[in-house]
Amino acid sequence: MNSILNVRRSRSAIVCVGIWLFICGVAAEAGTLVDSVATSCTFSNGMGRPWSQVTPLTSNTPTGSVLWERAVALNANYNFAPAAGIAHELVSMGYWGPGTPLTDGIAPTNVDGIGLKIYVNSSDGQRRPLLQTPLPVAMEKERVQYDSSAAQTRGSTMVTNYMQQLILTVAPSQLPAGKLIVDRVAGSSRLALYAVDLPRGKAAFGSSVEVPTDNIPIGICRAPYLLMGPAAINMGNGGPIEIPNTCDVQTYQTIPVQLGRMSLNDFPQVGATSMPVHFAIELSQCAANAKPEITFTDKYGPPADPTILTLEPSVTSAQGFGIVMINELTHQVVRYDGAAYPMKRAGDGAKIPLSAHYVRQGQGEALKAGAANGAAEFTFTFP
Question: How many CB atoms are closer than 10 A to CB 209?
Fold first, then answer.
């Protein structure tokens, strides 16, 4: 009997269809690009992506690892106003303000040992971290102008692409006990983001910029976007996030279990079993608070009886028999219907001892000698 942890992947076929379309008509005359000033700036950030795991948290995860990350597209919405012949650009700026000292721009969170770091993927191809600097730093910018022939004269939107990362700042053994749920930035430092209209060329990517205090023309963009506590985590509706304590899991792990060769005479009646064969499934490098559970499914199932593993369907397979596994921690029969079984922790490892044996199910002509191979697929979860 083989037990296999399978990660199933669905594959999609991509079909490319070429379409050639010829349209005869009158070409529209291009309009004139009109330089403008950005006014009436507002922010919206409903485009945040879900958090995704980068590095599992185990007992061996290195300090400084990125545990989870997510992208957030922050929009600066603005209107156009006359520019008086001067080219302008809207500049997206940001920094961590004064307060709690931050090392390398990593802000502490409510979970001691896990910090928040924020980058901007700028349109010039550079990835820039938001740091604790005296002045905000230019992260993104775009020319403020519109096409006079298009219905664009009312306003536009500049997108700044942020990346939030949760960083492990201590050894895993030093993390707090219990569930690790990051829901806010701790301390007094404030994330300050801005959308500011400036004469073109005044702010270079990555340079510090002092936010002007003038208001000419009226409503010119000088908009701050200030985030503290939960708001810094929740950009684009991203928080809170639970960091699961896990173990090192090797996918496609195979544990062969040989139940031996037997004859039909070894099973004199329905329910007769073979001698059990003992084995175990183990995990290593478990985080201190990891509580792994394991579930089993029948590779050739689902079985009619969820406690009996089906034999591989083949013309050479035995008939009238199945395989039973016992959880040696509880001395209960293992089920193949999604039931979860806690594993026993020991040091930085986890283990579930098991045994397996054949069982006779059929009688009379339903019995047939042959190969008796089964496969239980198992999956680990970390609630």
Answer: 18
Q: Are 372 and 266 in contact (CB under 8 A)?
A: no
Distance of CA 266 to the CA centre of its chain: 52
Q: What is the pLDDT of residues 238-265, one digit of tens each?
A: 889 999 999 998 776 788 999 988 889 8
pLDDT, tens digit (0-9, with 9 covering 90-100), for 55-109: 999 999 999 999 999 999 999 999 999 888 899 999 999 999 999 999 999 999 9
What is the separation, in whole angstroms, between the first and last Cα of the chain?
28
Identify whether the C-beta of residue 275 lies closer than 8 Å to the C-beta of residue 258: no
Q: What percent of the chain has pLDDT over 90?
A: 71
Which residue's structure tokens are 């004199």? 268
Supply the pTM of this predicted model. 0.79
- Count of residues for the chain? 383
221 in Cβ contact with 155 (< 8 Å): no
Distances (CA, A) of 12 to 8, 15, 17: 13, 10, 16
Largest CA distance in the chain: 101
- The answer to whether the CB of 68 falls within 8 A of the CB of 166 is yes
pLDDT > 70: percent of the chain: 90
Cβ atoms 296, 309 nearer than 8 A: no
Sequential DSSP letters for 313-327: --TTB-BSEEEEEEE
Q: Who's near 1: CB < 8 A, 6+ residues apart?
A: 256, 257, 258, 259, 309, 323, 356, 373, 374, 375, 376
255 contacts: CB under 8 Å, gap ≥ 6: 2, 3, 279, 281
DSSP label at residue 126 = -
